Amino acid sequence: MDFSVLRNLISRYCAGEEYWVDSRTVYIGHKEPPPAAEAYIPQRYPDNRIVSSKYTLWNFIPKNLFEQFRRIANFYFLLIFLVQLIIDTPTSPVTSGLPLFFVITVTAIKQGYEDWLRHKADCSINECPVDMVQQGTVVRTQSSKLRVGDVVMVREDETFPCDLILLSSSRGDGTCYVTTTSLDGESSHKTYYAVPDTMAFKTEQEVDSLHATIESVAIYTGMDTKMALNYQSKSQKRSAVEKSMNAFLIVYLCILISKAVINTVLKYAWQWSADHDEPWYNHRTEIDRERHVIRAFTDFLAFMVLFNYIIPVSMYVTVEMQKFLGSYFIVWDKDMYDEELGVGAQVNTSDLNEELGQVEYVFTDKTGTLTENNMEFIECCVDGHVYIPHAICNGQILSAASSIDMIDSSPGGYRRVRHSVYQLCLCSCVCQEHEDLFFRALCLCHTVQVKEEETVDSIKRGIHLGKPTSFYISSSPDEVALVEVSYFTASYETIEYSCLSYLLHVLNFDSVRRRMSVIVKSSSGEYLLFCKGADTSIFPRVVSGKVEQVRARVEQNAVEGLRTLCVAYRSLSPAEYEEACHQLSDAKLALKDREQRLAQAYDLIERDFTLLGATAVEDRLQEKAADTIESLQKAGMKVWVLTGDKMETAAATCYASKLFRRSTQILELTKKRTEEQSLHDVLFDLSRTVLRQRSLSGSGSGNYREIFLEISRNCSAVLCCRMAPLQKAQIVKLIKASKEHPITLAIGDGANDVSMILEAHVGIGIMGKEGRQAARNSDYAIPKFKHLKKMLLVHGHFYYIRIAELVQYFFYKNVCFIFPQFLYQFFCGFSQQPLYDTAYLTLYNISFTSLPILLYSLIEKHISIEMLKRDPTLYRSEEHPTKKKRFEPIILDVAKNALLRWPVFLYWTCLGLFNACIFFFGAYFLFDNTTFTSNGQMFGNWTFGTLVFTVLVFTVTLKLALDTHHWTWINHFVVWGSLLFYVIFSLLWGGIIWPFLNYQRMYYVFMQMLSSGPAWLGIILLITISLLPDVVKKVLCRTLWPTATERFLLWPVDCYPTSLPCLCEVVGYWRELEHAVVHVDPAHSKHVSG
């Protein structure tokens, strides 16, 4: 027996990830090694199938049933149903079995449909055609059939089916340009190089003739790929509302057990007297008397069955239907449809709709989420002179433009002069030479390629007016903007001729050097080295040029949020050029430490520069991004930006998006600061500023995480820079695990944001230019960041208000339903006699009272959409009176599940108990010892139960009608139609002889009750008395202590702007304490998260 799989699982999941290294030997083309080689051990790897679905055809029924019966209510009703089948109970098993079957079936259909959609998405990926090289020919197969070791041919604009190693390319230099939008959200093109040993293979036959192994290199397929591992740890998310429902169910289960225990005890206490024993015709034998323990337990179970309807089993299916149907309002929202992309919002899971109305923390990516990831050239500085092109607008070259503006920033004063390109050539020789060299550097020092048309993740580029047009692609969007402006400048004859050069070497950019260079040979035979990079990597290597003027301009642009690059050059003699060629050749051919030797060669070549100038480009904010962030902050949410960019660039974006204000006090926690001070001292300074703490002397190193968390939570906004995808998820998890347990939301656009999206309570993906992985793995997907405003402030707020009312209403109406049954036992000798007919017990939650609350939870609007968007503070602020002063308000945070807190739950429960007492005792005392019909016939027990049930159905339905603010014809149809359906059903159920019934105890009962005038008067009177306290309470509260929403509705439209600060003053007082902003550098996150 092969235990290798078990051994691998134990070593992988028990030994710890830090000690597990996946090293594998891959045989290219699945060709076995020659006999002289080492022993061939075939290894099993997963296929290339992507699986995001939850069920299969074979395990759907058992797995779904197992998950559904994990719910307390479902499992409880299953036990009740089994008890009804086993022992003699006062009600039929149908009364529990039919509602349970209905709930299980509807939920299974809903979950099966959602999983079927996931299966469709998986099939669309797994069935993608892939070209594979087999036996010297190209064979087309499906993506799911790829195996580790297959040789795959990927053509232009195709998506990689799995993690691959580049063996060869159609380009002569063995390079290919790849966009990683599906992984990290970057739409820029990155350069990859083929393996040198296989770079020369160009045909299928040559590739197929390859016999080689790749050792210690992982080539992954299917769920082992890097993309799949980003979301493989996806877990089931549960909303706060569902947790509250379970807590309430436990309380009601305790109430149910208490009722059963009380009735069982009272039954035997009542029967203790000989006068109250069983009647003579059913007298107990001695054997029955000896089995009193078993009989008591049986009676306890019978009472449990009789009162079991206090547990609202249909509440779960109603909540499921409300979430499923309500999610379509997001999909159908035209305001969340983007014309440019041609897509609208998507809902990948409907289980978290109400969480959108409780968000307290928003974690957002920067590039592609807040910004467009589309660089626009702003200006360039050459020898202290600033040039602003008016010819480049949104990345498009204006054909009518023939000049640029030049701002002279010399110490003599600013002057604005407009020069044509011809006039620029008449300037001084030095200025002209540097201008020429500067624009030549922009034209040559890059890795930009020209492309006609491209499709990435179903997004087409290079299409203008329906026709393909040329556009630039590059590993950096900054380069595209620079080449566009240099093309505009060099397109004139005076500069175009001098720009003729021959490209000799490219010294590629890397994150350590933070610069790139090219060596060119001009038409005159001169060798030139052009270099561009970050100011920190260029200035130390400059020996001449106007450094101070350029440095001042670079610093000013950085403060304004612009991305800056410095440009320099060096003239090489033939001997220096030959030496450089020799160094580069030796480094590239090195078999050991190639990267280090290349870095050393670059360091020797890139020196003694002459500074030419600097450029400034802008990554523009998305439309209405600043307005969205401002609205979210007004709504009481704290926005954190988690980005991989450097701090200066990210901070500038935060200022532009109004996340930071100019008056904001900035607190920085960076690696540089911790090098100057100890971590304890830095945290001490920050906490003293934010928390007003005097000392941290009692805090050991183990408490640094808590201190950091406390500081961050008391800041109005936090910016975390240089974050890896896993670090983003750790930050979200850190906030989730804090003592307040706030509801978090993460939003991003790339696969590097997937881990953060999955970690948060609610994950939202943006369907922008940067791929679809974030959208596919999120709970919700929106086209642009601006759509987040309406999703949270409108849809989220409505969802929470509606479902909170739904949950409380279900418990309320079931208390009204069952408590009269409990009271009835005191008048029937605790004989377990049901008060209601079996049909009423079965259909009360399924038919008579289910549709009105379902429709209410779908279309109720307690305030208009325009008002919610106008005043974001309504998202979470509800004011209620304090005990100290009559008109002194306190803020209840709706986002903290305020409408499902215990005081609110207790109010609804007490209201249900009050109404139940009115139903029962009102009917009892009004009609005690009274004749009702003209022939003197008195009402029996079924007539009494029907009277109570009629008052019950009308009261709970009219209670919901009183709570409804937004009436439509659908509301009228469902509310009044439900009452009419009850009347018609009762007439048919009691007015016709049904042949399938052995006995018909309800025959003519309902019509007999309606034929009595006092019954009509009693029904109307009891309904009025039951609803009166709730109506009085609402009138008093709205008059004396109106909520923020109610006061908002009372304001005239013309008075709104002047009245708004009254609401915001209280919220603003607390925000004055949240004045600090923390910058976090993950280079130090190891200490912080410890």
TrEMBL record:
A Pfam family hit: PhoLip_ATPase_C
Active site per the UniProt annotation: 365
The P-type ATPase N-terminal domain, residue ranges: 42-96
Binding site for Mg(2+): 365, 367, 749, 753
Chain ranges passing through the membrane: 247-270, 300-319, 839-859, 905-927, 939-961, 973-997, 1003-1028
Keywords: ATP-binding, Magnesium, Membrane, Metal-binding, Nucleotide-binding, Translocase, Transmembrane, Transmembrane helix
Cofactor(s) recorded in Swiss-Prot or TrEMBL: Mg(2+)
Residue intervals of the P-type ATPase A domain: 130-226
Topological category with respect to the lipid bilayer: Multi-pass membrane protein
Annotated residues for binding of ATP: 365-367, 479, 509, 532, 563, 643-645, 722, 728, 752-753
Catalysis performed (reactions): ATP + H2O + phospholipidSide 1 = ADP + phosphate + phospholipidSide 2
GO BP annotations listed: phospholipid translocation
EC numbers for this chain: 7.6.2.1
Residues in P-type ATPase C-terminal domain copies: 775-1043
Family statement drawn from the similarity comment of this UniProt entry: Belongs to the cation transport ATPase (P-type) (TC 3.A.3) family. Type IV subfamily.
Protein name (record): Phospholipid-transporting ATPase
Organism: Oncorhynchus kisutch (Coho salmon)
